[in-house]
Amino acid sequence: MSAGSLSVVAESVVRIGVLGCGTVGASLLALLERQSATVNSRTGLSLVVSRIAVRDLSQKRSVVVGADVFTDDALSVVSDPSIDIIVEVMGGIEPARGLVLAALAAGKPVVTANKALLAAHGSELFAAAEAAGVDILFEASVAGGIPFIRPLRESLLAEPVVRVMGIMNGTTNYILTRMSEAGADYSEALAEAQALGYAEADPTADVEGHDAAAKIAIVASIAFGAKVTSADVQCEGISSVSADDISFAQRHGYAIKLLAIAERFSLPGSDELSARVHPCLIPNAHPLAAVRESFNAVFVQGDAVGDLMFYGRGAGGDPTASAVLGDLVDAAVNLQSGAHASLGAFVPMPFRSNDELDAAWYLSLRVDDRPGVLASIAGVFGAHGVSIDSMEQHSLSGPETAADEARIDLIIHPALERDVRATLVSLGELESVRSLGSTIRVLIDADI
Ligand code: NAP
Ligand code: HSE
Q1: How far is CA 101 from CA 97, 149, 403, in A?
Q2: Confidence tier at 448 by pLDDT (50, 70, 90)
Q3: Ligand 2 pocket residue status of 114, Cβ below 6 Å
């Protein structure tokens, strides 16, 4: 063998350091093992995982690598001069942020699945990657296995994107599906989602909408070239969605989904943005209503392209590992050729307050069941200029219900959120209103 061919072989090996070997890390190692010959034949590169950082070295692992590959010193992996690329699948903000910055400063491309980190410190990390002239790739951070970030940052770079609306959390979609299709109890469905590897280490991040908020912050940044962090996202989760709400929605032709929405409002001076996460009644005819279990879907509306929809598995080890591996191959190919993907500049943009957003709502009240109550309630809506679209009343009885109590469920026509909130305050002050229940937005044809 000539010296020339020896050097070609040496150059084709790309050494990977993986930070984390949990649900995603372990699936990545298994997928890489299965696909390494394909990657090699298509790119000429051999991807070799030479170090893996974990927190607890004593834990039994399913992955087949030598014990000496593992370490509990993540910084030693990042600073190991023989390692070319860092994959961060450990999660959390610190030490992940410090490790990613150290890797970039050392000129090592980074692939990460960590949306919490990107949504809080994306600008800092993107600037560090740009300064170092290397990739930071994060396909797996949004919508698990769905290739969405690359189309958004490349194919749709010049598209005037107006709105991105999606089901971006697999755990909550799984819970809502099980509650509506099998009548499952909320905590039972959450435990199933955790066992299937969908949930975050702290599942509060899933059910309270913070995970979807992080994802929509990343999406809004890239779609609009704006500085958006998770702190800019108005966020409501699904923990207060009840079996009664699901049953109301089903009777009236809707599915309840947790939506993450990023929207740009064109104005003569400077555009405004909105980024929000909340449950929503979606008409069964809308494609997002048919997205079940841990599947995610992202619906993009652009001035030129019209409507696009991306659909696939949004959580779980294997789908997420697929996205990480795609990025890893991209980063390795770029590293060999000395290229890197650039994200451009992110500028601050004003946010439109939720008060100024127009939406239809489903509202539920517990009231006295006696003459005149309905008229007084309708009067409150009228006084605030909020128009009722449809209404349903049920007299209640049973051990947990006070005598002469009724439940009123309404859908109101689109109204400013400020007026809806004021209406709810006034309703709460009525003597005949015993309690205010669910308040969930409704997607209507004009939103689609
Ligand atoms: P996980 O199962 O909890 O695994 C985390 C791994 O990181 C574990 O191996 C843990 O070590 C290791 N780790 C944590 N802190 C560490 C530290 N300080 N030093 C060294 N190792 C440390 O998490 P995951 O579900 O794989 O998620 C990983 C990342 O992917 C997160 O950012 C998550 O948001 C993102 N993500 C997950 C999914 C999904 O479906 N699970 C989908 C998309 C994106 P031990 O094993 O010793 O505890
Ligand atoms: N916990 C997340 C979810 C994982 O349920 O969607 C994927 O980001």
Answers
A1: 6, 21, 63
A2: low
A3: no
